[in-house]
Amino acid sequence: xxxxxxxxxxxxxxxxxxxxxxxxxxxxxxxxxxxxxxxxxxxxxxxxxxxxxxxxxxxxxxxxxxxxxxxxxxxxxxxxxxxxxxxxxxxxxxxxxxxxxxxxxxxxxxxxxxxxxxxxxxxxxxxxxxxxxxxxxxxxxxxxxxxxxxxxxxxxxxxxxxxxxxxxxxxxxxxxxxx
Length: 179
Fold this sequence. Notes:
Layout (H helix, E strand, L loop, with lengths): L6 H12 L3 E7 L2 E6 L2 E6 L2 H20 L1 H6 L1 H4 L3 E6 L13 H10 L6 E6 L7 H13 L4 E9 L4 H5 L15
Antiparallel strand pairs: 1-5, 1-6, 2-3, 4-5
């Protein structure tokens, strides 16, 4: 686990610069079935796929809250300040057949049978109530193709930043971070 010695300074920097007031955890599917003109195939989740999914979620969330017209004029400035970490079995090595001996053996060896999930810390817009923000957050997440229905969202309490970084700074989704 790289980046363990950077957890404390990174957490302090994120708290100071981001000033988050929302903490959320969303769960991801391990894989999805894709239908195309060439047939049906199973795609396993990877860190790159999950990070792209999270970036798309952020853009669509802002569009849902502020409306299409405003979004079209101010796309770049509409993404909410956020930082997120990815945890769980997101390395694409989990077999799609959970009953096969190799997948069970892999889980036992890795000690990692945690569902892939994203820890999200963000600052919600001042003009959006907590109740309205939670509603749009849950509704948008439910529409994402890699989303599981498990969504935990609350007003930030305690040290959720350090907790989110428990796997090290390498778990940060850097392409989606905004301050």
